[in-house]
What we know:
Layout: E1 10-17, H1 21-32, E2 37-40, H2 47-51, E3 56-57, H3 63-73, H4 79-89, H5 92-98, E4 103-105, E5 123-126, H6 134-148, E6 152-154, E7 157-165, E8 168-176, E9 179-191, H7 200-206, E10 213-214, H8 223-230, E11 235-236, E12 241-242, E13 245-247, E14 256-257, E15 265-268, H9 287-290, E16 305-310, H10 311-316, H11 337-342, E17 346-348, H12 351-358, H13 363-379, E18 399-408, E19 410-411, E20 414-415, E21 422-424, E22 430-436, H14 452-469
Parallel strand pairs: 1-2, 1-9, 2-6, 9-22, 10-18
Antiparallel strand pairs: 3-5, 4-5, 7-8, 8-9, 11-20, 12-19, 13-14, 13-18, 15-16, 16-18, 17-18, 21-22
Amino acid sequence: xxxxxxxxxxxxxxxxxxxxxxxxxxxxxxxxxxxxxxxxxxxxxxxxxxxxxxxxxxxxxxxxxxxxxxxxxxxxxxxxxxxxxxxxxxxxxxxxxxxxxxxxxxxxxxxxxxxxxxxxxxxxxxxxxxxxxxxxxxxxxxxxxxxxxxxxxxxxxxxxxxxxxxxxxxxxxxxxxxxxxxxxxxxxxxxxxxxxxxxxxxxxxxxxxxxxxxxxxxxxxxxxxxxxxxxxxxxxxxxxxxxxxxxxxxxxxxxxxxxxxxxxxxxxxxxxxxxxxxxxxxxxxxxxxxxxxxxxxxxxxxxxxxxxxxxxxxxxxxxxxxxxxxxxxxxxxxxxxxxxxxxxxxxxxxxxxxxxxxxxxxxxxxxxxxxxxxxxxxxxxxxxxxxxxxxxxxxxxxxxxxxxxxxxxxxxxxxxxxxxxxxxxxxxxxxxxxxxxxxxxxxxxxxxxxxxxxxxxxxxxxxxxxxxxxxxxxx
Length: 475
């Protein structure tokens, strides 16, 4: 067994790296199991959990839930891990109630209702204050419970590396106030530092398509991936993401999510051609529609693609979800006029002029595309791409356009976990005293179920915290 060196500025039983939803759940569970807990957070806390808009998953236990999740994983997750996820996440509402929170059901539950077992995907949110979004109320509950337990949280402290003795993790080397800060972990370390949405090098290396922007917490830079790799961890699900479409403007680091009021719009590629059923896209998997690479042109001809809409649609409401993500403080105008004045949305009298303003490569092609689309609207049948008759609205009058990019709610990849939440090495061996939780090495290896990441934060955080607290102490 490893021994604790005399190098620490502080010691704890369990050290949690990252203070978002998963880190808070891990800290609470480890503390309640009798462990002394220290949390390290490079910023102020909350992560993507605080910025989340909606719900957490709490599936109904049983073979139907397993069948559904197995289908979504597309073979990327072993059965035992799915079993463990269902076991722990099915108790999420119990955990919330134990913390003093109230929950409410948020239908509909399943993201893929045609898959067998979808009826087991129940989603909830924590009842919050008026105007509070689901992630805000969840984070307020979690952070209040951490504070109530007097768990030490070192904010603006950057974890740099995991400290080993032999084949065990025994602590963390961090940086605090410009100096080295060593924290010994007598029982274990929980890695819950989030994804790599704002690390350009890692996005180029692991994800399909580039550039890909992000909606969420800018602190998600992938440090947890690198720290885990440094001690031999295997990686999994590195190409998996939850990524709708959005707009990226130079004044803001984060992107704005696309959300349309009504059906008066189309999406075209860089040649001005439609390529998808715009109203039939699966929200979290929109990125799959635009990451086709053009080998002849040596580019992603749909990154960016372009949203085209008309005057009637402009007046129907914002082309984004107001109050979403890291830019929730920005007050988007009700009729999109302020964004036109800013130059974010371009305006034109006709398709040729709009194509020129947007930089579409074929000005005449956009005009042709709109003519074909409008004819389909008059016929009530989109034979080319299968858009439903009720969603076929002609575009006319003054036109508007804006570049669309794949944008990350979060990445899912990171160090691979065992069914018990232990991080494993490239040979499948457990790295002793090291656990993973949350979006860093998430279970969501292919398709994503709405509420799944918040649900996993609660489930995997509790499991990791409890298991780390149950380890025998380092001598």
